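S1.2 Input.
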Amino acid sequence: MYNVPNYKEDNVDELTSFINRYPLAFITGLDENGSFVGTHIPLIVENRNNEMFLVGHMMKQTDHYQAMFKNSRVLVVFNGPNGYVSASWGTIKSKGSTWNYMTIHVNGSVSFFEGDRLINLMRDFTLQHEKGDKNSPTIFDNLTDSYKDRLMPHITGFEIKVEKIEGVFKLSQDVNEATYLNIMKELEKKEGLDKLLGEEMKNRREQFFS
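S1.3 Output.
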């Protein structure tokens, strides 16, 4: 990762909160032939006995399942909002433009599970993303038995035991406060990821300039 101390985020609560806000992970590993495989899967954070695990599910008939079943070592990447930061927004005009972003890298090992634990995962996963709405027709318990009978044999649950976690939140925290505020306001004028990046900067203003 980009090893600049000002940008590193080591607080476990902050990293967990980030994953909960941006749960779609890019998971990559190597198959038995040394070829890269990768997939995007939303994950849930679980903390057990002072250890962190990332939990999700995937289809079995995929190249990444076959690779990770034989080689459990993976790199997991969570990306948040990112965007271009123009040097014209700063008070020091001799500096170049840059790109702000938020990301977490996790190294770990995958293990797979099925049966009752997979069923419980699907219950928790669907209920969490339906904001606890037990009346939603898409939570696991409200799906038809025929649909679940067709689906479940083709998926597997998995967990990744976190062995190393690193966060980089590059949010212009190394500039003066006037520049920071202007960058934040310029990003908030935009749409999509830029606007979200500005909101993340706004939430951290006091942390950086208290």
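S1.4 Remarks. The first strand starts at residue 8 and ends at 9.
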